[in-house]
Amino acid sequence: MSYQSLLVEIENKTAVVTINRPPVNALNAQVFNELGQVIDELDINSNVNVIVLTGSGEKAFVAGADINEMADANLVTVVNNNKVSRSVFTKIENSTKPVIAALNGLALGGGLELALSCDLRISSDKAKFSFPEVGLGIIPGGGGTQRLQKIIGQGRAKELLYFGDMFDAAQALDWGIVNKVVPADELLAAAKEWAGKLAKKPPVALQMVKLAVNTGSNTDVESGLIIETTCFNTSFATEDAKEGLNAFVEKRKPVYIGQ
Fold this sequence. Notes:
Pfam family, one: ECH_1
Oligomer: single chain
Family: Belongs to the enoyl-CoA hydratase/isomerase family.
Distance between the termini: 26 Å
Helix content: 40-55%
Strand content: 15-25%
Protein name: Enoyl-CoA hydratase-related protein
InterPro entries: ClpP/crotonase-like_dom_sf, Enoyl-CoA_hyd/isom_CS, Enoyl-CoA_hydra/iso, Enoyl-CoA_hydra_C
Structural class: alpha/beta
Keywords: Lyase
CATH topology of the largest domain: 2-enoyl-CoA Hydratase, Chain A, domain 1
């Protein structure tokens, strides 16, 4: 796999995808197209069980969308680009593999939306976050108004979206926006450690957990329970389920094959 704006490294069942667009890894049409392509490719790659998404350098994970590109665009272009960006974020959210965001620096606007589309978020202690769009006369268009409120509630979400104030990693952890904060020089190692643990787990079971949680969050409890039952039955029918249960009874480590 070769990309102009992404670096991709696959090792130990983990794919590390680095957005590489100096100086601040701003999102433009090319980045979105390549992100969509790489997620599609990794989703069907049997050598990948987990995806880690990060940014190059120490300054930014993704410092938002490319404002120069947006400022020169007409409404038709913006509408089309917005369709692509929302599609890519949804593709990441619904990937069959767990996706971990390793937030190495600024995650602003579209960068924070990208992080919110991932399953888990580990932050550098130097990272900072905000939704500055209202100050530019626009609003988030990549799912930020929807995913943020599901994580932190409407009141706090409106506060962050209305004012656009910057907040740090400690505050993001307190609000539940990130799962963990680590020193900057330990970030990628921490993300790979989590990825390594997940990569050893049965892939279908992880996929069914993700499907049950993501789909169930958009419906009522009773419908969510039906979804959970279907996902449970699917996972129970796998060879990995038999292996996991037998390994427990036999007091040995299971060996999963992804089937």
